Input
Amino acid sequence: MPKLQKINVNFPIAEASFDSGNPELNDFFYNDAIDYLKESYDQIYFIKENNNSIIIIGYIAISCGVVEFSEEMAIKKKLQSIPGLLVGRLAVDRKFHRQGFGLDLIKKAVNVAKKISIDVGCRFLIVDAKTNLKSINFYLKYKFKFTKPILGEKILEELKNGAKPKKRTIKMFFDLHQIMK
Ligand SMILES: CC(C)(COP(=O)(O)OP(=O)(O)OC[C@H]1O[C@@H](n2cnc3c(N)ncnc32)[C@H](O)[C@@H]1OP(=O)(O)O)[C@@H](O)C(=O)NCCC(=O)NCCS
Output
């Protein structure tokens, strides 16, 4: 498998080739990624092809975050605001879709979350999933759940019927206790 690496502020991003098919995620990669790093807003990991060119297969941007649950969803009803690792952005170049690279990026986030949870409270991976079938099916496949299940199911139904949901994103989470206990 191609190696996962971390972007640093000297990374020659303009020379890289990347197109996820999502303009917003491409734009972030080319225009904002380095600035976000400089500001310590996130860390960005990428997978590149195993040769000398900078063909980016995919990237993930992660930072600290918190997820808000409704009272019914709150775990053991103790805390509604629970800390986790935020998957701010995740995208795979469209030439490489459906080959498991998205999963490799999620695994990286899981490993980071497991590592930091030794020193700092960190229970979930958190993501604002884009409300399209690709993105929601992707996170569901890898055992993410909706923080608002009724709303999530409604959006999923709309998408399956070919409708465009009003909300652009929906919050989903992956419980690290599924794999840590
Ligand atoms: C969503 C995305 C990251 C998935 O990356 P990937 O490398 O293809 O993911 P994987 O190969 O690990 O997983 C594939 C799974 O994702 C889902 N999926 C991917 N493309 C899909 C599509 N066109 N329609 C429906 N489900 C899709 C399926 O569950 C699929 O599993 P399957 O192939 O067994 O049906 C990629 O499609 C992408 O970059 N899209 C544009 C950016 C984006 O939407 N990012 C998510 C932002 S929140």
Notes: The pocket of coenzyme A is lined by residues 20-22, 25, 90-92, 97-103, 127, 129-130, 133-135, 137-138, 141 (CB under 6 Å).
